[in-house]
Amino acid sequence: MRLHSFILATAAVAASAASALAIDEIVPVGDQKVMLAKKVTVGRDEITVIDGQNRESKMPVANVLWVKFGGEPNELSDGREQARRNGKYEEVLASLSKLKKAEVTPPEAQADVAFYIALCKAKLALVGKETIQNAGQALAGFIKDYPDHYTFYEANELLGDLSRARKDYANAVKFYAQLAKNKDMAVRANALVGWTHLEQDKPDDAAKAFDAALADRSTGEAAEAQKRLAAVGKAACVVAKGQAAEAVKLVEDVIEKSPPEGLDARMYNVLGSAQAKNNDAKAAVMAYLHVDLMYSQDPAEHAEALGNLKELWKQIGQPERGEEANRRLQRLYPTSVWAKK
Length: 341
Fold this sequence. Notes:
- The structure is a single chain.
- By secondary structure, the chain is mainly α.
- It has a domain at 264-341: Tetratricopeptide repeat domain (Serine Threonine Protein Phosphatase 5, Tetratricopeptide repeat).
- 64% of the residues lie in helices and 8% in strands.
- Strand 4 (46-50) and strand 5 form a beta hairpin.
- The longest helix has 20 residues, at 2-21.
């Protein structure tokens, strides 16, 4: 009996100690070190960090990739990283959907579970593996339940992406405008509006939005990343106006000046588009191959690359590789717009 009581008491002390030692982690945008914190309190526009010496600091959500809460389920910890780093949306959705909200601790982690379920549905919907309606409902439900979460603006961005996917450009701009309410995200809002105008074959309007993004005085890795993409967007506008050779130089300049962690699939897709329009099929193949080999975790951009490769391989005398690219496109993204072209 005494041994039993001793074991129970020891277990209680161990559990209490584990709880006391539970720490939160902040993963910043860009190639920066993970930050450890005694406590993180999240808000719509910034997070509050209490360090090990009880010092308080603030961090804009624009510079936060994710927050890991001490004691949260492993499914959430692993799922965040698999979704963000590797694009494993189907696997993460299946794993997180099995969690019961009431059993998720700490309470802050419940919002993250809801967000990543919605994010995965949205990413899958953008390549035809989930319905846009279901993904939109998940995101709208998340925003309603957690209006002050640090991913509020990202949820609105995803709703904008879904609106663009169904060519509802007016609503896309409306959702992107939510980001402009945060001074640190105005640059991102303008860049997103620019891409929306480009999809409507409005290069002049797109260029104005990209110029606004480039003129923004926001600093930090997140802002700089959006400015690089805005510069690439300007190049895409130049392609749309028939000046492909100039566009190639513009994108190559952005890529050359970008840090390794700042490179992006869209840069190479725009480069490939410009090179193809410049009648340089071999160079275009190399650009799109870069996306295929390095950025396959981004389904929408990967589908675009494969969709172009299936035709470009034929142009340079390797039709069998074009057929292979098409088989992969049909297998990975069977309902994407690129698979139907």
